[in-house]
Specification:
221 residues; four-stranded parallel β-sheet; two-stranded antiparallel sheet
């Protein structure tokens, strides 16, 4: 199946794109875009892949669903376009980074500069109907993104996986902890951030790990 995605991912995921579930997923998603208001815009469905080629991946941050408010989702988990107010979870992420590594919290929530440094911002489900959280779950996206996680684990070394909240942490079993760093914390949502996301120091831990393997650390803010 012809999928418009960055070439290094396209090559490595070619077998996945030809599986029956993925063809069914494409048909479902195409019909949803034609009949409903779906986010992100179609050109941004694979933006996380397009901005962070396979060989560049150094850190994986896993979200669950795209934001479902107008103008928010643009293909990177936890990120919003520059002219969109920052969601509470992202504000808490920035607060933890500031506490952990210093620096000034940005005036916007666009995380493309992370992706361009090798932070792969992957949602488990890549599309959603407006104002309907979880509306495209269990349609095939999770099978695809699980395959992506397994691919990174199998074919790369010294990647930092940041798993925030129970859903993300359920993916840990797919990751080879003997050659990657798995960091776990509660979700940065205001409902749970105070239970251990604040103070987790994942961002400095990630950079220390990268530097220990002669990889360039991430400029978080």
């Amino acid at each position: 199946m012809e999928v418009k995605i960055e070439p290094s991912w396209k090559e490595r995921l070619a077998e996945e794109f030809d599986k029956p579930y993925f063809k069914e997923l494409v048909d479902f998603v195409r019909a949803e875009y034609q009949s409903k208001k779906v986010f992100p815009p179609p050109k941004n469905i694979f933006k996380a892949f397009d901005l962070c080629p396979f060989d560049n991946v150094k850190v994986v941050i896993l979200g669950q669903d795209p934001y479902h408010g107008p103008g928010q989702a643009h293909g990177l988990c936890f990120s919003v376009n520059q002219n969109i107010p920052m969601p509470p979870s992202l504000i808490n992420i920035y607060k933890e980074i500031q506490s952990d590594t210093g620096g000034q919290i940005p005036a916007h929530g666009n995380l493309e500069h992370w992706a361009e440094q090798g932070v792969f911002l992957l949602n488990a489900t890549l599309t959603v109907i407006t104002h309907m959280a979880g509306s495209h779950q269990r349609k095939g996206w999770e099978e695809f993104t699980d395959a992506v996680i397994r691919l990174i684990s199998a074919k790369k070394e010294h990647v930092v996986f940041m798993l925030w909240g129970a859903f993300a942490q359920s993916k840990a079993e797919m990751i080879d902890s003997s050659k990657h760093l798995i960091l776990k914390a509660p979700h940065p949502s205001p409902l749970s951030a105070h239970r251990g996301f604040f103070g987790c120091k994942h961002f400095s831990q990630a950079n220390d790990y990268l530097k220990s393997h002669n990889l360039t650390p991430i400029t978080w803010i």
